[in-house]
Amino acid sequence: MQDVFTPTSLLVTGGAGFIGSNFINHFMAGNPDCRVINLDLLTYAGNLKNLTAVEGNANYRFVKGDICDADLVARLLAEEKVDAVAHFAAESHVDRSITGPDIFVRTNVLGTQTLLEASRQHAEQLADFRFLQVSTDEVYGSLGPEGYFTEETPLAPNSPYSASKAGADLLVRAYFETFGLPTLNTRCSNNYGPYHFPEKLIPLMIHNILKKRSLPVYGDGLNVRDWLHVKDHSAAIERVLKQGKPGEIFNVGGNNEWKNIDIVKLVCDLMDERLGRAAGESRELITFVKDRKGHDRRYAIDASKLKRELSWEPSYTFERGIAETIDWYLANQGWVEEVVSGAYREYYEMQYGATA
Ligand code: NAD
Ligand code: DAU
């Protein structure tokens, strides 16, 4: 195992999004002496309400800005004496990448290259540095009914989103191989948990069930995703940042495969219990709709390297995680109403022909 690297000043990009904000809340609770600078453009997906727990912390600084702004990034790295970058910022929704791929290339590819180049120049003056690229299992493409993605699986992205993430991952590799920048690359399966934007499957279903709206299931509903609680993902990223050997890739996943239709039915049933509705009532809202273009059939992650080399294990059972997630959404309807009332409303109306 690599000697433990202890960051003293961490630049987090995209820290107002779903996973980035969960990561900051997790990391700052366990690393009170580390400074954390959150650089986020606050697109439709970013929300500072996700970060109220750290707002008053003297070691926390929020900067509204674009990862494609090379001058801003260079200035922050120098000014804050940053010795580690955890790069979450991205356009993250596959459906949006199908209707508008350009912004995915700009943010995910060009934004990553901008951060890498600024980090390369900045790190030349430092004894030690880490750049951690938060990536996705989608870069590996799609699986048939058997098998798992390992770190050796060839990249075969199918959507503009996953292609842009694969492009970014290859730039990360290039900066390690060519310049010796100490990079790390994590590739995680589908996350769920608090602050998940309600355009993604699980929070969209919770929101629509509550409003008694139809529950759009793409295609035959038999596509498979491998779900991991966002807090387990956050812990994995911290472990890789501190103990991963530079130049390495680590898959992250919880061995928790679900067919989409089964997860939608489960969410319906758990919601019915909580809302005092008759058993089976919400399942009536399930509507099979036109399939997503290029819809990957199955994702399943082999995370044995992370377990073996860095002793990481997920702590959530899915039973507990999904129940807590539903309870969180029910207790935080103000947050949901706020995020669906902004720029998202237009997108929702275009997708579903109803008001968010
Ligand atoms: P998200 O869409 O919820 O958040 C993205 C954040 O990035 C937002 O706060 C947004 O404002 C910010 N952002 C976008 N463009 C920016 C720019 N140009 N400059 C600065 N900030 C910008 O995404 P998420 O689901 O939290 O995903 C975070 C990362 O994790 C992404 O890189 C994604 O590819 C990866 N990932 C996500 C999942 C998942 O299940 N959601 C799984 C594996 C990997
Ligand atoms: O695997 C990791 C990836 O997981 C991340 O890299 C992405 O950023 C993240 O968005 C997620 O991508 P998916 O496309 O798997 O997630 P999404 O929630 O959009 O969809 C999950 C599955 O549910 C997928 O098979 C499509 C289906 N689906 C989705 C929506 C929004 C539906 O059937 N109906 C829907 O309304």
Search tags:
single chain; 356 residues; alpha/beta; Rossmann fold; 3-stranded mixed beta sheet; 12 helices; binds nicotinamide-adenine-dinucleotide; binds 2'deoxy-thymidine-5'-diphospho-alpha-D-glucose
Tell me what the structure shows.
The protein is of the alpha/beta class. The chain has a domain at about 10-195 and about 225-255 and about 295-315: Rossmann fold (3-Layer(aba) Sandwich). It is built from twelve helices and twelve strands. The strands form three sheets. It has a seven-stranded parallel sheet, with helices on both faces. Helix 5 links the parallel strand 5 and strand 6 (about 185-190). It starts with 8 loop residues before the first strand and ends with a helix. The model has no long low-confidence stretch (mean pLDDT about 95). Bound molecules: nicotinamide-adenine-dinucleotide and 2'deoxy-thymidine-5'-diphospho-alpha-D-glucose. It is an enzyme of class 4 (lyase). Its EC number is 4.2.1.46. Its cofactor is NAD(+). It comes from Geomonas anaerohicana. This is dTDP-glucose 4,6-dehydratase.
Q: What is the chain-wise order of helices and strands?
A: EHEEHEHHEHEEHEEHEEHEHHHH
What ligands are attached or bound here? nicotinamide-adenine-dinucleotide, 2'deoxy-thymidine-5'-diphospho-alpha-D-glucose
Helix amount: 40-55%
Strand numbers in spatial order across the main sheet: 3-2-1-4-5-6-10
CATH superfamily of the domain at 9-196 and 227-257 and 296-317: NAD(P)-binding Rossmann-like Domain
Q: What integer value in Å does the Rg equal?
A: 20 Å
What structural category arises from helix and sheet content? alpha/beta
Globally, the shape reads globular
Number of strands: 12
Low-confidence stretches are none
CATH architecture label name of the domain at 9-196 and 227-257 and 296-317: 3-Layer(aba) Sandwich
Residue-averaged pLDDT, rounded?
96
CATH class of the domain at 9-196 and 227-257 and 296-317: Alpha Beta
Biggest sheet details:
7 strands, parallel
At CATH level 3, the topology of the domain at 9-196 and 227-257 and 296-317 is Rossmann fold
% residues in beta strands: 15-25%
Number of helices: 12
Rounded to the nearest angstrom, the distance between the terminal CA atoms is: 48 Å
